[in-house]
Design a protein that fits this description.
By secondary structure, this protein is of the alpha+beta class. It has helices spanning 2-21, 29-37, 52-64, 75-81, 95-110; strands at residues 25-27, 43-46, 68-71, 89-92. Strands 1-4-2-3 form a four-stranded mixed β-sheet, sandwiched between helices.
Length: 111
């Protein structure tokens, strides 16, 4: 079970890396809020160690704009996957990437 979880986590992080290469990923709170508002965000991922304020802000935005939101990894996982320092919030702007991420994240969170 643990090995499967690690494999799933790896797949999600690799997919995020691919989304960065394809320029289909936005990171950072302000920019993510902007793409949610512009209806460009297809799925949003927030780290498990985000502050309560950030979490609430992103949850509210996703809810009002009907964007799928997942809590996944910590800020160093998300940063590492995107080739940056720590990242707390990511938004994927491509439907194809979002669909695959959604499937993987739902599977991962079901555990």
């Amino acid at each position: 079970k643990r090995a499967t979880e690690m494999k799933q986590k790896q797949q999600i992080l690799q997919l995020l890396g691919l989304a960065v290469s394809a320029r289909m990923l936005t990171s950072g709170e302000e920019l993510v809020v902007k793409v949610i508002r512009n209806s460009q965000a297809k799925i949003v991922i927030i780290s498990s160690d985000a502050s309560a304020n950030t979490l609430k802000k992103i949850q509210d935005k996703c809810k009002s704009y009907n964007v799928e939101l997942h809590v996944f990894g910590d800020r160093s996982d998300l940063g590492h996957a995107t080739g940056k320092d720590a990242r707390v919030v990511l938004a994927v702007t491509d439907q194809g990437f979002a669909k695959k991420l959604s499937e993987l994240l739902n599977e991962f969170n079901r555990g």
